[in-house]
Amino acid sequence: MLASRVIAVGALALTAAAVQAQTYPTRPVRIVVPFAAGGPADVYARVLGRSLQESLGQGFVIEDRPGGGSVVGTDIVAKAAPDGHTLLMMSNTHTVNESLLPKKPFQLMRDFVPITPVNSSDLVLVIHPSVGIDSVKRLLAMAKARPVVLNYASSGPGTPYHMAGELFKSMAKVDIVHVPYKGSSGARTDVLGGQIEMMFDAITTMAPNVQAGRVRALGTTGKTRSSVLPNVPTVAEAGVPGYEAVIWLGIMAPVNSPKPVIDRLNAEVRKVIARPDLKDAWRKQGAETVDMAPGEFEKFLRGDIDKWARVVQSAGVKAD
């Protein structure tokens, strides 16, 4: 008798979970982007939002809440109701911050649940033409001859732009000054204007400026050359052997969000990024889609946290 009751309760729970997934979302969904407008996270969040709105029949509102190297916007999501109606567009900034900013008001793997990665892209090291440098080797020579003279911009502490620069400094043994901004757009604007000499920027947003001659590309940060800038060498082949840094994006939700909702969001996003037209469009921009189940993404996140913790410690990286 007891066993039959347990089976009945279990069946009811499964039915309720299935209904919950089928009826989700019941109102507009907010995707919080904890970075400035115009950067990769903002751009790709809007692409996903439009597609999810079509497939799920509710509005997907993109809310840019930059500040604190992603901490401000991320904390908003951490404190949101765990019902699938507030999501976080995150990046490897978040895995870096687990070791770089230990006193932040949340912990990534404690206060959030992974949904899915979205895409990954290389960065490109660019320098303003007025500096008169046209190669990584010449950049290294100047940096070694005149320490703390060159500056590089980033979108804030812990962001891929910052960590790419710190990894470059550590591996090349040069001293270049980090100038953090509140978002990549401000950093990019000042590099294009010549107020800051250089920057590691997402190839998806900086490539058009390289092609227009507004900045010089010294190297891309992947293992192989980018199809978007095929004539630009990798940083590794241009003078810093073994160098590699990328930017990737993903989606998480507040912890205790219903598993059926997480699974449905995972399935819906994977449908979107599997579309041939979208994959082709993103590839032309320099971004490759990344397809994982929630459990795979969780394992990936934990591994990335460990990797960057080692870099932060060995390179002595500090939050500015």
Explain what the structure shows.
With 320 residues, this protein is α/β, with parallel strands linked by helices. It has two domains: 2-120 and 247-315, D-Maltodextrin-Binding Protein, domain 2 (3-Layer(aba) Sandwich); 122-238, D-Maltodextrin-Binding Protein, domain 2, CATH 3.40.190.10. The protein contains 13 helices and ten strands. Strands 1, 2, 3, 4, 5, 6, 7, 8, 9 and 10 form a ten-stranded mixed beta sheet that branches. The protein is elongated and about 80 Å long. The chain starts with a helix and ends in a 5-residue tail after the last helix.
Top keywords for this entry?
48% helix; 2 domains; 19% strand; alpha/beta; D-Maltodextrin-Binding Protein, domain 2; elongated; single chain; ten-stranded mixed beta sheet; 320 residues
What ranges have pLDDT less than 50 throughout 5 or more consecutive residues?
Answer: none
Radius of gyration over alpha carbons?
A: 21 Å
- Please state roughly what percent of the residues sit in beta strands, choosing from under 5%, 5-15%, 15-25%, 25-35%, 35-45% or over 45%: 15-25%
Mean pLDDT: 93
Q: What distance separates the N and C termini?
A: 64 Å
Order of helices and strands: HEHEHEHHEHEHEHEHEHEHHEH
Looking at CATH, which topology of the largest domain would you report? Answer: D-Maltodextrin-Binding Protein, domain 2
Helix share of residues?
40-55%
The appropriate CATH architecture of the largest domain is 3-Layer(aba) Sandwich
The helix tally amounts to 13
The CATH superfamily of the largest domain is identified as Bordetella uptake gene, domain 1
Instruction: Describe the main β-sheet briefly.
Output: 10 strands, mixed
Shape: elongated
User: Would you count the extended β strands for me?
Assistant: 10
CATH class of the largest domain: Alpha Beta
Q: SS-based structural class?
A: alpha/beta
Number of domains: 2
